[in-house]
């Protein structure tokens, strides 16, 4: 038997394949070429033929052209596995609006559904948050709060614990993270009883950090509302497995992006939950539920972060209801734990450009800076959170996404704008010019639109401005720690940590050093690369 090649299947190939399998299963016939092109979001006959040829090579179909027309037939191997490739919602035309659906849900509510989830919110034996001998929280072992929503690129929270102790940071001090992400530094500082400030340009990440550092929640009310939401979701899903939900949310997300992330049933569930959560009056609880929704949606989606967004529609993923209920349970239990202690630090989150952060932060006020800035790895970080930004109404179109991108460090060629010129700040650094020139030499025969040498120069120009801003807000003698990793492109090594240290010397930091942190594998080149901590002392 020929083995199906399930690797590297594209969004358009998947859309075509599921339509072919579903149409054959339900109607015992194959879709017309125009139907497939509609599913693929294309009007091109050439793209259709290329897609079908690829599915033929992968073993899913037998494809040929007869009299100018495509002839399709499912392979025996695909027929044997077709159950996983059949989705009635791909061909379903009937729709239901939220108001009518919710009437059906209310009429079907049963106590038995509450019982199904009740054990998820059962009180557990309290673990000790504080190890009195070490005088630090056990969150580094338990992942308390951090697990509500985490970012792939973030450093371990143990680093904050260790460095705060090493530099004798105490109550009354302020820890700063100018690239706050999902709040690792802020949550850990709060646990330590130390105030913190996080600067972040991504509005979703600012929202996540605010939610993760606000523990003043009525947890019994949270439990009641969470149970109600889960019960309604179970009932609604029975209808949404066979009908499409009318939703303004689904209409505003670019179609191919939506299809890349979510299968039709999951699209329905997410749109339903979004509408259902909008009815909740308690803002803090609503926000908690939205954070849980975002991460559960990702866990059940077609996408994995490697660290870029990769499409794996045939990979087994958790059922959305299971993922959502598990995350709500963890939130409830974590709140029980943190509310057993009533003395924590205060976290402040500022949505702003770290290259100008001294406009928002008092000069000479920061006792410790710990962060992991973007790397020059050509990852366009809004891609990883774009669906969630649409979901929570932080953006309504690509123009608003573009405006967010303008505030980000230029670590990707997709973040370079015509008017950018921060490369001028690093013209004097031979190390930067050497790397950029080497990459340019490797790419001299390429005729594409992505300017990698310029990206390198703009990235380090942006980081130069960021280091300059950090120096303004740090106290005299205070350390700034940058967790950075060397990168490679076309086998050219980019020594990020050493270049940042060199720029720190130029800016007048009293002491600079580069400490080894750990080894990590390059996802592009499959070679180990050091991750380091660049230490700059004001």
Keywords:
single chain, 538 residues, alpha/beta, Arc Repressor Mutant, subunit A, Rossmann fold, 4 domains, two-stranded antiparallel ribbon, 21 helices, 17 strands, 45% helix, 15% strand, globular
Question: How would you explain this protein's 3D organization?
Answer:
- The chain is an alpha/beta fold.
- It has 4 domains: 11-90, Winged helix-like DNA-binding domain superfamily/Winged helix DNA-binding domain (Arc Repressor Mutant, subunit A); 95-122 and 217-338, no CATH class; 124-215 and 342-362, Rossmann fold, CATH 3.40.50.150; 373-538, no CATH class.
- 45% of the residues lie in helices and 15% in strands.
- The protein is built from 21 helices and 17 strands.
- It has helices spanning 11-27, 33-39, 45-57, 76-80, 98-108, 111-118, 139-142, 158-166, 184-191, 203-212, 219-240, 248-252, 255-261, 264-277, 283-299, 320-338, 382-391, 398-405, 430-442, 452-473, 496-506; strands at residues 61-66, 69-74, 95-96, 130-131, 136-137, 174-177, 195-200, 244-245, 303-305, 309-311, 347-351, 368-371, 479-485, 487-489, 492-494, 511-521, 528-537.
- The strands form 6 sheets. A 7-stranded mixed sheet has the order 11-7-6-12-13-17-16, with helices on both faces. It has a two-stranded antiparallel sheet with strand order 1-2. It has a two-stranded parallel sheet with strand order 3-8.
- β4 and β5 form a beta hairpin.
């Amino acid at each position: 038997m020929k083995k199906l090649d399930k690797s590297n299947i594209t969004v358009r190939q998947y859309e075509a394949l599921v339509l072919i399998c579903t149409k054959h299963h339900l109607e015992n016939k194959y879709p017309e070429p125009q139907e497939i092109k509609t599913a693929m979001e294309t009007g091109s006959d050439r793209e259709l033929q290329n897609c079908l040829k690829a599915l033929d090579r992968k073993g899913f179909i037998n494809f040929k052209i007869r009299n100018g027309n495509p002839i399709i037939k499912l392979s025996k191997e695909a027929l044997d596995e077709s159950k996983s490739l059949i989705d009635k919602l791909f061909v379903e035309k009937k729709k239901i609006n939220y108001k009518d659906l919710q009437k059906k849900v209310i009429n079907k509510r049963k106590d038995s559904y509450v019982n199904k989830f009740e054990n998820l919110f059962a009180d557990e034996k309290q673990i000790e948050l504080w190890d009195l001998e070490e005088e630090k929280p056990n969150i580094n072992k338990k992942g308390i709060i951090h697990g509500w929503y985490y970012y792939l690129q973030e450093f371990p929270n143990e680093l904050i614990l260790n460095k705060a102790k090493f530099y004798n940071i105490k109550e009354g001090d302020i820890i700063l993270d100018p690239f706050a992400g999902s709040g690792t530094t802020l949550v850990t500082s709060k646990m330590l009883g130390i105030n913190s400030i996080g600067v972040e340009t991504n509005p979703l990440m600012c929202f996540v950090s605010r939610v993760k550092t606000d523990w003043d929640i009525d947890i019994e009310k949270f439990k009641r509302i969470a149970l109600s939401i889960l019960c309604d979701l179970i009932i609604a899903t029975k209808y949404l497995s066979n009908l499409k939900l009318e939703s303004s949310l689904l209409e505003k997300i670019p179609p191919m992006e939506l299809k890349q992330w979510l299968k039709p049933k999951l699209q329905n569930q997410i749109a339903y939950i979004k509408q259902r959560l909008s009815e909740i009056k308690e803002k803090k609880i609503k926000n908690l539920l939205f954070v849980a929704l975002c991460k559960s949606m990702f866990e059940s989606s077609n996408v994995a972060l490697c660290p870029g967004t990769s499409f794996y529609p045939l990979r087994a993923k958790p059922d959305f209801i299971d993922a959502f209920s598990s995350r709500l349970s963890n939130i409830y239990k974590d709140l029980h734990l943190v509310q057993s202690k009533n003395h924590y630090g205060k976290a402040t989150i500022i949505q702003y450009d770290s290259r100008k952060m001294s406009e928002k932060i008092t000069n000479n006020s920061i006792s410790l800076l710990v962060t992991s800035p973007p790397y020059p790895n050509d990852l366009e970080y809004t891609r990883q959170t774009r669906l969630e930004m649409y979901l929570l109404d932080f953006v309504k179109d690509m123009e608003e996404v573009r405006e967010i991108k303008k505030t980000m460090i230029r670590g990707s060629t997709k973040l370079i704008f015509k008017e950018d010129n921060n490369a001028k700040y690093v013209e004097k650094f031979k190390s930067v010019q050497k790397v950029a020139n080497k990459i340019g030499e490797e790419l001299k025969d390429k005729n594409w639109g992505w300017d990698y040498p310029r990206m390198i120069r703009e990235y380090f120009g942006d980081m130069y401005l960021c280091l300059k801003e950090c120096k303004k807000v740090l106290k005299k003698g205070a350390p700034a720690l940058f967790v950075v990793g060397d990168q490679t492109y076309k086998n050219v090594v980019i020594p990020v940590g050493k270049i940042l240290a060199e720029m720190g010397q130029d800016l007048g930091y009293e002491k600079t050093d580069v400490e080894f942190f750990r080894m990590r594998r390059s996802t592009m080149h499959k070679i180990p690369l050091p991750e380091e901590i660049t230490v700059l002392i004001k």
